[in-house]
Amino acid sequence: MNKKRALISVFNKDGIVELAKSLINNFNFEIISTGGSRETLKSAGINCEKISTLTDYPEMLDGRVKTLHPKIHGAILADRSNKEHMKTLKEHNIQPIDLVIVNLYPFREVASIKNSTLDRLIENIDIGGAALIRSAAKNYHHVTVVCSNEDYEELLEDMDKNDGKTSMKFRKKLAAKAFEHTHTYDNIVYQTLLNRFDLAYTPESFKIELTKVDDLRYGENPHQSAGLYNYSDAPKDELAFEVLQGKELSYNNLIDVTSALKVIDEFNNIPAACIIKHCNPCGVAIGKTHLEAFKKALSADPISSFGGIVGINGLIDADLADIMTSVFLEVIVANKFSDEARLIFNKKKNLRLIEVPEEVNLISNHIIKQIAGGVLIQNADNKMITQKDFNIVTKKKPSEAELDDLLFAWKVVKHINSNAIVVAKNGQTLGIGCGQTSRIGSMEIALRQACDEAKDAVVASDGFIPAIDNIQAAVQAKISSIIQPGGSIKDKEVIATADKYNLSMVFTGIRHFKH
User: What are phi and psi of 386, to 5 degrees?
Assistant: First the structure.
């Protein structure tokens, strides 16, 4: 009597050696395996047959082609109750495969790494593995498919109860899970490539699959319930960040933390600090060190910073921790905390510390909002510009220092609710006007916050400046330069007014409305 056969091809090899040993010793299985999986099993003393021995073809194209062969898929897809199918297998000397244990290349994990190249992403799109999973799931009447090591224990338990076979109920469950897994995998590839190819595309159907990680105490307000969810194919209960200490994170905390991360992510390779209140920055700064950046961000608006959420795009050391503990803060999020800093923060038991690895990709693909009777979906505002994109429209040209501040202010204004105005100088926000129903209202708030420090500072506006009253307010505050999208029917009048008062002005050609 022929032994039952299991095909093993896994990227995540956790638990695979123990499973293979159980299949051989307890249920009389033969093992067929591919490259890396076979090496892992062999090194554990497990005898397994090469795929290439069955197919008479070597693994080729750097491993892109291993299992894509009739002798493999025929062995999986054959309907054992169909005499013609079984006759075909016999004619071609194909022995059925009863169990397929496959998990896929870690595309999502690679995609989450900020600096992953497109070539690396493409190499982590699993073709053969996905085909094996789908073939086995399609033939669930006769074949068992396992695509997660979380199911290894239940597989062995089910086989133990059923004389070395699996039950139909269990095979159905695994088949459905397999199609869910490949669907989610393909959707992540699709969404990632849309972003990497910079395709402004809204699909005919849009699917989001989420798994609950935890219930939250409440939502925005105590009478609202809320939960924290993750993408379905992420490791169970695992998020991109780690909470190191403090009270349970609230719904509002998590939103503010995300806002802080997105702001500091604008500043690669330069120390940056951001303080968030109610989703809006109240202080943002860059500096030679993170300590300098935080001091500048805090001094930008010390009153609003009370109870704020702080983001730091690097390591928090003991010196920075000492300064931070002198201020009441709700949450601090950073790429890393030193051991000395952890000891200092430990004295404030309720303060939440969140560590987010530097390689985590914070770029979103889509923004989704509910409206009456439906849902709006748009591409996320991931547009970045450099000074090379600046269109200087006035007679006076910005100085090098002003150009640096204009770009800094533009990066910040992108993350403030419209109408948004930012006053900045020397890599520091001095005043922020947000969420007003008129642009002049936001301008007046930002300039009033900046007060005398507005002299020779710059202004960024998230939308075009619609009237000369904004320019006149900037002139009165002694602002030296303005950056805005342009595009108003009054652009000529606005530019002429700037020229009249010897202001420099830059148009970006894009706007950053945030509602």
Answer: -125, 180
Quote the CA–CA distance of 225 and 208 in Å, as a whole number.
21
**C-alpha distances in Å from residue 485, one per residue of 397, 491, 508:** 17, 10, 5
Q: What is the pTM of this model?
A: 0.74
Q: Mind listing the pLDDT tens digit for each residue in 69-85?
A: 777 788 888 888 888 88
**256: CB partners within 8 A, 6+ apart:** 276, 277, 278, 279, 309, 330, 331
498 within 8 A of 507, measured Cβ to Cβ: no
Instruction: State how far the Cα of 300 lies from the Cα of 403, in Å rounded to an integer.
Output: 20
DSSP 345-368: HTTSTT-EEEE--TTB----SEEE
Active-site annotation, residues: 138, 278
Give SS3 for 9.
Answer: strand
Q: Among 284, 278, 513, which Cα is nearest to 418's?
A: 513
For residue 232, pLDDT over 70 is answered with: no
Per-residue pLDDT tens digits for 247-268: 999 999 999 999 999 999 999 8
